[in-house]
Write a structure and sequence with these properties.
Elements: E1 3-7, H1 15-34, E2 38-40, H2 42-45, H3 55-71, E3 74-80, H4 86-97, E4 101-107, H5 109-116
Parallel strand pairs: 1-2, 1-3, 3-4
Length: 117
């Protein structure tokens, strides 16, 4: 089964914004599974035990994520409302350097809210 690395926002200014970003990532992970592929979403997994507010732990999570990206078969870049975070930029640069195949989903916040509830 192919592994699909999910590139989407995690950080937000508020806890509700972060929860929204997690819902977006979970929604697309499920879509990947239903396609018969394995989703790789380090921003959902590693944030369960690494503290995003601690810069050292955040950097560890980002580095592990980049390693997982290099090992993935493809990526799915999810852009909501045209905003790309710094973490996403790092992942996009890595995917570009590695000439990975991938897909881009662009949605407005209003469109994605309709699908994730």
């Amino acid at each position: 089964m192919d592994k699909v690395y999910i590139i989407s926002r995690y950080r937000a200014f508020t806890e509700s914004g972060m929860e929204f970003n997690r819902k977006v990532a979970r929604y697309f992970c499920k879509k990947i599974v239903l396609e018969g592929k394995i989703p790789v979403a380090p921003h959902l997994f590693y944030t369960q035990f690494l503290d995003e507010s601690q810069e050292k732990e955040r950097q560890i999570g980002l580095e592990i994520g980049l390693k997982e990206l290099r090992e993935a078969d493809e990526f799915l870049l999810i852009i909501i409302g045209g905003w790309i975070s710094e973490g996403m930029r790092r992942e996009i640069r890595q995917a570009t350097r590695d000439r990975m195949r991938g897909r881009v989903v662009y949605m407005t916040r209003k469109e994605i809210k309709k699908v994730i509830g």
